[in-house]
Write a structure and sequence with these properties.
Elements: H1 3-10, H2 16-26, H3 39-48, H4 50-60, H5 67-77, H6 81-90, E1 101-105, E2 108-112, H7 117-126, H8 129-132, H9 138-150, H10 154-175, E3 180-183, E4 204-208, E5 211-220, H11 226-244, E6 248-254, H12 262-271, E7 274-276, H13 278-286
Parallel strand pairs: 5-6, 6-7
Antiparallel strand pairs: 1-2, 3-4, 4-5
Helix pairs in contact: 2-12, 3-9, 4-5, 4-6, 10-13, 11-12
Length: 292
């Protein structure tokens, strides 16, 4: 960032280190409610196995009848044996992939086959399903399992939620009706100049009429690690490319993970056009220290 901009914000004696401290005081980890559970995904996954779950409810119903016998009974009469097998494995919060998986047993290793009842019975015995599973409603139980499995996707959702529910409305509010904000724009792409791998797109491009005025990258980091360091090292090149094309490069950051990445941010702030948190962007624009 231009040191004059930093001094305009914080005072004439301000340094890059002062700005990063200011920046870190404004980042926070605040997530919208929909981050915690994707209910549409949960309902879809449960609904996909609804008939099979009803059959498993019969298998695990505590009526005194042998569960192994009931499992063999429903398996032999059910047409879609693969789905029934996958539903059974789901009861231990595990998804059966296309390549299957192996189970270590007392006398070696066996591959679990969802189309083979003996394989499934062995799996149910080894994992404790036959003896230990005691629930009144298997459908409710599987819904709970899906909610738990969905928690694995939270890490990936953090970035998407930050973009769509924090950055998008913020940018629309800050730039107003005079500018248009395009998400994942396909017309402006600086990434192609520095990466030959999988196609990437900027989180947002800010247009004035048909003219792109700024590219915006959004990075939410909940925990520290190597990812924020790699990002901080790759964005200076993008910032240079944006400047060459008469655009501003705005990097919006949030999340408590940045608080352990102070040195990375100091380096980034020195080289990247604009590094700011959602809490500071509006103030930065309105102060007229920054002109887009």
């Amino acid at each position: 960032m231009n040191l004059d901009v930093i001094k305009c914000i914080l005072g004439k004696e301000a340094t890059y280190e002062d700005y990063v401290d200011y920046l870190l005081n404004t980042v926070q980890t605040a997530r919208p409610g929909r981050y915690f559970v994707d209910w549409n995904k949960v309902k879809k996954n449960v609904g996909k196995y609804a008939p099979e779950i009803k059959l498993l409810e019969y298998v695990f119903m505590d009526d005194g009848k042998d569960r192994v016998e009931k499992l063999r009974e429903v398996f032999n009469c059910w047409k879609n044996k693969e789905k029934l097998g996958k539903a059974l494995i789901l009861l231990v919060a595990y998804r059966y992939g296309n390549n299957g998986f192996y189970l270590r047993i007392e006398d070696g290793v066996m591959k679990v086959d969802v189309k083979d009842v003996d394989s499934l019975i062995l799996f149910a015995n080894e994992t404790g399903l036959i003896k230990e599973l005691t629930v009144e409603n298997i459908m409710d139980y599987v819904t709970g399992v899906e909610v738990g499995l969905d928690s694995n996707a939270r890490k990936n959702r953090s970035g998407e939620m930050f973009e769509k529910f924090v950055c998008a409305p913020l940018l629309r509010n800050v730039f107003g009706f005079h500018y248009s904000i395009v998400y994942q724009d396909r017309q402006v792409n600086l990434w192609k100049n520095i990466s030959s791998g999988k196609a990437k797109w900027h989180d947002f491009v800010v247009y004035e009429g048909n003219v792109p005025k700024a590219v915006v990258e959004c990075t939410f980091i909940g925990t520290s690690g190597s990812k924020p360091t790699a990002i901080a090292e790759s964005y200076p090149a993008l910032s240079i490319l944006a400047k060459e094309r008469n655009m501003r490069f705005i990097w919006l950051i949030d999340g408590d993970g940045w608080k352990k990445q102070r040195s990375d941010l100091i380096s980034a702030v020195k080289e990247i056009d604009i590094v700011v948190s959602p809490g500071g962007l509006k103030e930065l624009i309105e102060s007229q220290c920054l002109i887009v």
